[in-house]
Design a protein that fits this description.
The chain has 80 residues and is an alpha+beta fold. The protein contains two helices and four strands; from the N terminus they run βαββαβ.
Length: 80
């Protein structure tokens, strides 16, 4: 049986944060999830706009974490 395609909103993300000691300001997270992240106006680091992204933005948050070359985007998955 072939694998089933992942449905939108299937990721479970309870909380998102950026480790500012790791963030190098690449902006890949902003490109992947502009609803969740933005670049700081005062420093070259990312900021979290939606720390609890909810099911509609969970896939975007996961894509942002995968896109970060500095591994600065941290996700806490829900227990569901």
């Amino acid at each position: 049986m072939p694998p089933q395609p992942q449905q939108r909103g299937s990721a479970r993300v309870a909380h998102v944060r950026v480790d500012l000691t790791r963030c190098a300001g690449y902006g890949n997270c902003v490109d992947a999830a502009p609803e969740v992240f933005r670049m700081s106006a005062t420093a070259e680091v990312a900021e979290v706009l939606r720390p609890e992204p909810g099911p509609d933005l969970a896939d975007s948050a996961l894509a942002a974490a995968r896109a970060c070359p500095a591994h600065a985007v941290l996700l806490v998955k829900s227990r569901e």
